[in-house]
Write a structure and sequence with these properties.
Largest sheet of chain B: none
Number of helices of chain B: 5
Structural class of chain B: mainly alpha
Helix content of chain A: over 70%
Largest sheet of chain A: none
Number of strands of chain B: 0
Oligomer: heterodimer
Shape of chain A: globular
Amino acid sequence: MNNPKVDNQIKAYLNSNQEEKAFSLLVDTYQKQIYYQIRRILTFHDDADDVLQEVLIKIWQNLQKFKWESALTSWFFRITVNECLGFIRKNKKRLNQISASEIQNLLEADVFFEGDEIERKLQAAISQLPDKQRIVFTYKYFEDLKYEEIQNILGGSVGSLKASYHHAVKKIEEFVTNN
Amino acid sequence: MFNLESHKKTIQKNSFATPENYFELNKEKVLSEVRKTKIISQKNNNYAVYYLIGSAAALLILIFSIFNNSSEVINTQNQNISSTDIPFDYFDDIPLEEFENELLPKDTSNALTINYLIEEEISLELIAENYTL
């Protein structure tokens, strides 16, 4: 979540040309949050690790250009979403080949997944959602963001975001019930 | 029927685990990457400066050579040399032998042949028709 005190400190560091200090503080504060968002969208640690690197490097490359007109976290989340979508597009063939039941099996064997059967089913169901529904669901359900905040990240209208979330919830509930 | 809202209330812990010290190690990894990109961008900036300096120097040389060359052309064009510009005793110091040597036929075999033909009283017109004097 947003941390105004830290954000102000990051801004102060940037204003005094201490970019690396600003970035270090940013990583300390937001790295975990960004990682878990990616992990919820992409499920597996190795994929999340790759995307996290890309997200942090993108943040570093553009930090000086950030205009502070919106919350720093909204900007991070936008970069995170874009990188996740880019990763999904790049690995479409590989990701599409994995069925929901295979994902459950992989999660059962995954040392970096500690959830129970329901959690495995939930994650498998999320992985089968279309990209936009998957991202809206992740931010609404797990991050508890308001639709207006999600709108800042994804764009589009609040109405369409609500519809995406509603469809995602229905599909997931159906999947978990029937599998 | 599975209900997501009621499930949310039962979630007690994060299901996603990471390798040990993942975030600390990742921070170090990213910071070292960042330092590398910083050095590369500094190098690129240096290359840009070198490129600019090189281009400016080349441009200056080009401009200088154009102006220098055109002034030489102008100077040459302005030199209307006539025979009166040559001092009257200019050629006095040059020995006559130098001219004689220059005037001798370069092909000695040809010269010998001509001499022989002259000795044989062959007309000069005929010799001139067949040999370069």
